[in-house]
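Please predict the structure of the following assembly.
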Amino acid sequence: MIIKRLEYGMLLLAAFVCHIFIVDYISFWILAFLVMLPLVSLLITVLAMGGVKAELIIMNASIQKNELLPIQLKIYNKYLFLVCRSRVKLTIRNELLQQEQTRLFFVTARHSGQTVEQVISSKYCGMLRCSIAELRIYDALGLFSFHKKSESSYLVAVLPSVYPLMAINSAILQDIENNITSRTMKGNDPSEIIDVREYRDGDRLARIHWKLSDKYDQLMVKDFGDPISNDVLLLFDLNGNSDEEISGLLDSVYSISDFFIKNQIAYEMEWYDSLHEHLMLTEIAQNKDLGLVFEAIMTNSRFQKQSWVLKNCSNSYGHKPYSVVLYLCSEITSNSIAMIHKRLAGSRVNILLVTDVPGTRTDLTTIDLKNIKESMSNLVI
Amino acid sequence: MKRQIPRSGHGLNLDNPSLIESNTSLVMQLLYYFLFLILGVSGVYGCFYTTFSLSLTLQVFIFYAVVFCGVFTIVFLIKFNRIILLVLSMAVAVNVLFLKQRSLIDVLINHLTQGFFLTYNSVISAYVQKTQYSFFTFPTNVAGTNEITASSTMFAVFTLFFYTLLMAWILIRRKNTTLCFLLTAPFLGVSVVFSITPHYAAVGTLYIFWAFLILNSSFLRNKSKFNKKKGVFYSGGKNAANPQSLIFLPILIVCLMLVTVLFPINSYNRSDYVKDMRISLLNVPKIPSPIQIPIQSILGYTDRVNLQLVGNIIFTGNTVLRVKSSNPDGEYLKGFVGSIYTGQSWDSLPENEYEKLGSILNEWKVQNFSSLFNKLLGRNVKTYDLKVQNVKRNSLRVYAPYGLISRPEELPGIDFINDGFLKSGNALFGTGEYSMNATTLQIDAWKMSESMMNAFNSEQTSFIHAALEYKNFVYSHYTQLPETLEEMLDQYLYEHNLNIENYFNPNAFANAVITQVRSENSYTLSPGITPEGRDFVEYFLFENHKGYCVHFASATVALLRSAGVPARYVEGYAVSPGDFEEYDEWANIPDSRSHAWVEIYLSAVGWVPVEATPGANRGIIDHEAAEAKTSSASNPLDEEVINDKFYNHETPQTEELPVDENSESSSGEMQSSTASYLMHTITRILPILGMFGLFIAVLLSSRKMQIALRKKQFTQKDSNKAAIAVYEYIVKLYAYGKSNGTVDCRIPKDLYNLVLKARFSQHMLTEQELGLLLVYAENQAFDIKKTVSLFKRFIGKYIYVLF
């Protein structure tokens, strides 16, 4: 804008010099015209700016990592015959990792509107806040500008990746006390019959429901339920040094959570809310619960230098120790390991170190970020 | 195909944005560009054809303008085979315009050619009129207004086709507003050059077109949809058509009309501030001629004498005029006439006063009155020829004698300025040489009575009636004075017993007044400047009592007016018979002959010069003698004056100081300068120092910019591109070092491999790898800088900006 003002100043100066040296009326006409031009431009702009609107249109509420997200930015003027130039500053910010990108657009705000499509993608998970940071209206000559308030803002979640856990299945179930029987999963708990069906080859004779078989004049077999564990605690500290470690750790947590949910393993998750500065403990049984928790986690700042969860965790929930405790982090010391075992005595504690430098600690289970898929697949607890 | 977004080191990746079509309807786009185009074309052709008063059949021209603008708008907006459409439209135009009326060959050879000749001849004749230079013109074989109009119209339509095509292409396809302006500006510029104002409607149309260009330039950015510039994305392309901005058009028209209504041309009067600024700027120290001439030529004529700048004066003796005359008596050559006295200046009457004069005089010019009276009354006067060469080239002043016979039609390129003087019609080039006829003056003034009218025929009577009316005009307009001064001068006349009733004619009264003024005031070339706010005449007559011709003439005019005698202040040059003694033909008139005198109006004679300056004989003054004569005379006032803090005792400077020959001085004719020799030298050196300083500043800022740009290239996000930029820099260093034979210009193999990797590999170089290249480049620069000579180091540092 300064350049435009300088240019206009030079033009005005030239016209004034022309008016000094050319005595005809025409020189005065040029000067008067040039003086009047910015006033006309300013008048139109002042009238037009009241009708200028900027909107963000985003169809997706969540995406995967590296998935393309189209963001549409529409600028228009609700007044039919007025038009002006506008500069829009679009900001996309990853709230978790504190990364931000901006784009500046110069578009015409007229009645029919102009729509700009900006496609983005995120390499890491997190909560993306897409907002119009600044809307500035310019007159046609570029001499004047006015700031206009715009509150259009959207949040889009970039979900962590889910890696299948193959080796964890039978191992985790061994030490869990059967408190709840699954109503869908078939198992060996005779106290709970979840279904009665026709006999098939291979079914055990002990499972035949003799009374019903007699009644239906065909062999009917009982299906027993499967006990579900609720004594699992999943806790983690986002104490990684790089975006890859933070993101990788969240991928791991999310993958393990997903496994639990799929396997009907209700568990509790403990994490540190840096926004409100306290520990959060949430029971998770379904995907919906997980989604809500992760929305909160990814909105928080990543600046977590201390391992808050590690220092403050305890085993006193539910008046009995947890069966299995899974602690994920990116950094840990020997003292910390001892501390966590002491705090969570009575529970089977599994410490998972999510790092891109594997092999640093052989006494812990390591999830190698460079081969995270394979690491998760082979994860044994 | 899967979309690939450029990866960055950041977690967030943003693709290049795209602009979704904003649904501007085709009709609106057509309307927008059509109106835009018709504005530009009509403004351009209107300015050109009204400047040179070329005859056109307006309806035909407008019809084709609309057709061409419409067709080309459609051609460039709609995507079908444009070439076919262009050829078709040309064929239609040719057919409609030409074939229906004449055979194609006849039209092409005759009418277009004749149209071109006519247009060319009109332009050349306008030029000749303004400059008196002659140029080749084409012979035309069209006769009759209709034929001429038809040929001119055909040629105009022919050029209109191509011009509209070019303008449409630049505006609609290229969307280049700068080119549009450059294509249209010369057509108004040529009017300025010829100092002819086109029709204001055409000028207004062109102004509106330019304003529309400026207001839409940010919309009409480029033809691609999105243009990235300095990190900002600008929308363009087809969406540039912004029909809503058509609202600017009526607003601009209203604004222009408002300016015209608020400041109508008839009552337009330039402010005194602007006039004074112009005069002040004209008094800058002498600058080389090539620069000065263009400045001089555009300036226009000064119609004002600023008495506040009249001070000490120095003559160089340089020739400013060359005169060839057969008049044995010598003469005054009048250059400027001051009609209104403000106390600080002599100004011309307002234009609207002269409108009344025009209706009185019809075709007669007051400048010819003396010769007309001589002819009317059968006076036995001599006629002579006068030729004047203006050594101050491109001068706008035309110095004419009293008793001018030549009428306006006999003096092409020279304008008769109301009832006062003459000036060059060419505001740009001025008039270098001119010739005129004149008669000597016979001053036997007497009053025309009604009874005498019977002796004359109708034409003569008509002239006499005009002369009598003009006399009334003179008495009503040329006796004006500021009120306070008039009171003082009335008192002065009373005290010195100067009563017009006691004299038989104004001439005698004028002589008495002059004698009185001379007796009380002394002649000097160094009277000093009138203090700010003081009346010039009042200060001279009642306080300073020192001055030269400007002072004496102004005071005399004021006193005569106070007594009711119409008088005017005149500036010009005086030529004496003695000037021709040495030369057979031409007399060189030096700057010391610039002079100011009084003219009074005598019935049956016209305006006659009256000499007011002591020591002057028909305008010829021996300045030193006059000064010596008046200073030696005992004057009781002198002692007071010596102690007067406003009086400047400086003796006339004898060193020859360079004076600006070509400038229009503050007094119009007299070249005055208060600068000492030292100041003048400083003002000569200052521009050189300034240019040197500018050169240094440019050098330093250029170096800074180039270093900043190089740093930006080396630290860009794309490390491969950064590596290539570093390599290019290393190559330049090698080239410079090689020319000095100082450096072994071979890049190490491992670094060269890195460059190859950056150029051809899909992988990005790491920061460490880029760092290696940067360190190597820095070391090379240091080595080369160390080994080259001081001069080479300077060149390398500031010219090539290598280190």
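Confidence is low (pLDDT under 50) at residues 1-9, 285-301, 633-676 of chain B. Chain B has three domains: 26-206, 304-643, 683-799.
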